[in-house]
Write a structure and sequence with these properties.
Elements lengths: L1 H23 L3 E2 L3 E4 L7 E6 L5 E4 L4 E8 L2 E8 L8 E8 L4 E8 L15 E3 L18 H4 L3 E2 L2 E2 L3 H9 L2 E7 L2 E7 L5 E5 L4 E2 L2 E2 L8 E8 L4 E8 L2 E9 L9 E3 L2
Parallel strand pairs: 2-8
Antiparallel strand pairs: 1-3, 3-6, 4-7, 5-6, 7-8, 9-20, 10-11, 12-13, 13-14, 15-16, 17-18, 18-19
Length: 260
């Protein structure tokens, strides 16, 4: 019986060692897939548990990662860049130990449109058409700042530059085409959007043909220094507010009104 008991003890101890060694030679992940919304910043994380040496050896260029050590485990934070596109994108984080690779799949949605509406959840309501236009894809008229900055009509007015900044900073902007017209979609968190066509600008009596379809210039009511005034500017990969324009050039106008 002593021999049997001794054999059992040895077997149990050996099994414990095997289990312990196996657990030490493996790496576990709390998540193997992370999904991100399209246009609004959201950090997600997964936990790596192991006593092996490991490192992240591959990740897509649209994310940044950071590590937080906590109670013998590592929290890996994943911070994506905003996806200013209608297309979803995919990638993976590859983790390597001396023995094998481990993969965390990454998926970021594309921007989804809901309704074309000036109700973007902002401090003011945006018109869905340029001044002088009847459809959102129409360019409308070009105006000199001195002729238009104090324009009121049925409660509508030019936005201040702070309100243009609010539009830029609190919506996802996506360059694209709307019925063949190029411009920028400003999409709110509620899915509502306004489309601003890239109407370019007018110099004197002539519209700059090279700017049409490539750039949007929209006046605000805010004056700047000298002969300039502020406005909103966008191109295929950029949106800027507090952009100084010479007041003598003809620019587009998109009006706003206060909420009731």
């Amino acid at each position: 019986m002593k021999i049997i008991r001794t054999f059992i003890k040895i077997a149990i101890a050996s099994l414990f060692c095997i289990i312990t060694m196996t657990s030490c030679s493996e790496l576990s992940l709390s998540e193997t897939e992370l999904k991100f919304p399209a246009g609004f910043f959201e950090t997600k994380s997964f936990v790596v548990t192991t006593d092996l040496n490991w490192d992240i050896v591959e990740q897509p260029d649209w994310v940044k990662t950071g590590k937080i050590e906590e109670n013998g485990r590592t929290i890996v934070e994943v911070m994506p860049k905003v996806n200013n596109s209608f297309d979803s994108r995919k990638g993976e984080i590859k983790i390597q130990t001396s023995e094998k690779y481990y993969i965390v799949d990454l998926i970021q949605d594309g921007v989804h449109l809901n309704n074309e509406s000036g109700d973007l959840g902002l401090s003011v309501e945006w018109n869905t058409c340029n001044l002088g236009a009847t459809k959102s894809i129409d360019f409308g008229n070009y105006y000199r700042w001195d002729d238009i900055h104090s324009y009121p009509s049925n409660g509508y007015r030019l936005p201040t530059n702070d309100e243009q900044v609010e539009l830029r900073d609190n919506s996802v902007w996506v360059w694209g085409e709307n019925n063949g017209v190029r411009g920028t979609y400003f999409v709110a968190k509620n899915g509502n959007y306004v489309f601003l066509p890239a109407a370019g600008y007018r110099d004197g009596t002539d519209v700059s043909s090279g700017s049409v379809g490539s750039y949007g210039f929209y006046w605000s009511s805010s004056a700047s220094d000298g002969y300039d005034a502020n406005g909103l500017f966008f191109s295929s990969n950029y949106v800027a507010a507090y952009y100084d324009y010479d007041r003598c050039y003809g620019r587009s106008v998109r009006l706003v009104r206060g909420k009731e």
